[in-house]
Structures are given as C-alpha cells and as structure tokens.
C-alpha cells in the first residue's frame, strides 16, 4: 500500500514538472541546468554556510593535524562549486580545486580573491572520478561537501581519493543522505527524487553514502549522522567526518 501511495504521488509530481521532463527528453535540459545551477548554488551555499557554520568549523578544526613533510597543508577540494568552504580552511593552506562544471569558475575566482589567507594552486575542470592531473600520493587532505550525492560513481571517486592522498592523509566529507526508512522524511525523499534529480543537477535524495565510505578500504573512518538545521527538511539528514588512508 505504501509503495502504491509513493508511486501515485511521484507520478503527480512528475506531471506537475512535465515541462522539465520534456526538456530533458529533448536533450535540452542538461545544458540549461549547467548554466543555471551555479547561480542557484551561490545563493544556496550562502544560506547553508550561515546555518552550518559551527558544524563546518568543527569538522575542519583538525585539518592541520594532517600537514605533510613539507610543513604546508596541501588540500584538494572536489566539486568546489563557488568556493563556499574556503573561509573555513587554515591560513597558508595550499588549495587545488576541481569541478566538472566550467560555469562555476567565475564564482570561484571571486571566492579566491576574498580568501587571501589561502594559497591557490590551480582549478581543474574535472570530475572527482577521473583526475589524471593530480599525482599519486600528492595531497595531505581531500575535501568534498554536498558532492557524493551527485557523482556518477561513489566507489570510483573514493578510489581516486585514496590514490591522490599520501599515506596517512585524510578525506573530509559533509553530505546530505537518505533518512531512516521509517520516517516521513524518507517518504517524501522517495516521492520528490525523480524531479529533484533533474532540477538539481543529478542530486540523489536517497543515497546511503555512509555505506560507500565504510566500504572504501580506509584505515580509519570517523563518521557522524546528524540532522542539519536546514529549512528544506528532505535534506536535513546529514553525515560528516573524515577517513584516513
């Protein structure tokens, strides 16, 4: 009965969003989304940072613990978007950014100019699953926030993370995830998912990202589930933490 209810409500949502699905069927939506999405993320991450500032400060408070032999923290951020995390990184940190959407770059340049406490190395137009520009074992820390929800393969991106991290390096993450299956939040996540996936550039509402992290062969996994203080309840279930290679 529950499955039928979800199917009917999901169908109703899809009917309401028919123009969006039509554009996607015609092969037009992806190009529109790639140009529109950075403007949305600029506004969204401003509000997200306000609501999640204490959690981000807590998460990134021990980045310096992973400084390598060079004495300078070498950090790679995957899916850097508009550079919303930059202000939380420690002074003198050497930052390499990657994102598969070239339309983020102009917002990223502005964020770089506003965060002079960091040393920016380069911007890579690349997905996290395939970064041949980054040498094996060259990074002390890799960071991604609100990225694992939309990557094509969580397993491949975590393989790349392990490849580019030096031994003893760490991967920091902050992600929205699927709610517990018995909750109303999960009920609405299932209903909204097809529409949400298209509108927000392949973002999955129902991914259990903690399973991929726990199965990625890191030597240590420190992971916390929590409810983020956000207005959009379907993305309140979150995980955060770090893994060590």
Short description:
GO terms for molecular function: S-adenosylmethionine-dependent methyltransferase activity. The chain is of the alpha/beta class and 245 residues long.
Structural description of this entry:
The chain is of the alpha/beta class and 245 residues long. The protein has a single domain, classed as Vaccinia Virus protein VP39 (Rossmann fold). It is 40% helix and 22% strand. Strand 4, helix 5 (154-164) and strand 5 form a beta-alpha-beta unit. Helix 1 (2-16) runs parallel beside helix 6. The protein starts with a helix and ends with a strand.
- How large is the radius of gyration? 18 Å
CATH superfamily: Vaccinia Virus protein VP39
Report the major sheet.
7 strands, mixed
- Hey, roughly how much beta strand do the residues contain? 15-25%
Per the CATH scheme, the topology name is Rossmann fold
Average of the residue pLDDT scores: 93
Strand order of the largest sheet: 3-2-1-4-5-7-6
- SS-based structural class? alpha/beta
Q: N-to-C terminal Cα separation, in Å?
A: 45 Å
Strand tally: 7
- How many domains? The number is 1
Helix percentage range: 25-40%
Give unreliable regions as ranges: none
> How does CATH name the architecture?
3-Layer(aba) Sandwich
Task: Report the total helices.
Answer: 7
**CATH class category:** Alpha Beta
GO molecular function: S-adenosylmethionine-dependent methyltransferase activity
Domain Methyltransferase type: 76-173
Organism: Zalophus californianus
Pfam families: Methyltransf_11 (PF08241)
């Amino acid at each position: 009965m529950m499955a039928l209810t979800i199917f009917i409500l999901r169908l109703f949502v899809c009917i309401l969003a028919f123009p969006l699905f039509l554009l996607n069927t015609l092969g037009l939506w992806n190009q529109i989304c790639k140009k529109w999405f950075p403007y949305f993320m600029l506004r969204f991450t401003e509000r997200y940072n306000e609501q999640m500032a204490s959690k981000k400060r807590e998460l990134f408070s021990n980045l310096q613990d992973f400084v390598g032999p060079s004495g300078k923290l070498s950090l790679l951020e995957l899916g850097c978007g508009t550079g919303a995390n930059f202000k939380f990184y420690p002074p003198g940190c050497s930052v390499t950014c990657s994102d598969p959407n070239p339309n983020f770059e102009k917002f990223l340049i502005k964020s770089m100019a506003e965060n002079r406490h960091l040393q920016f190395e380069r911007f890579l137009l690349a997905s996290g699953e395939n970064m041949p520009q980054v040498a094996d074992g060259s990074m002390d820390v890799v960071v991604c926030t609100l990225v694992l929800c939309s990557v094509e393969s969580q397993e491949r991106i975590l393989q790349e993370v392990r490849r580019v991290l030096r031994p003893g390096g760490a991967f920091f993450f902050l992600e929205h995830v699927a709610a517990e299956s018995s909750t109303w939040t999960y009920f609405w996540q299932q209903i909204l998912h097809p529409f949400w996936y298209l509108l927000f550039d392949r973002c999955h509402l129902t991914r259990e990202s903690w399973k991929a992290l726990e199965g990625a062969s890191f030597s240590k996994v420190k992971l916390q589930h929590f409810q983020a203080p956000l207005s959009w309840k379907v993305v309140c279930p979150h995980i955060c933490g770090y893994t060590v290679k």
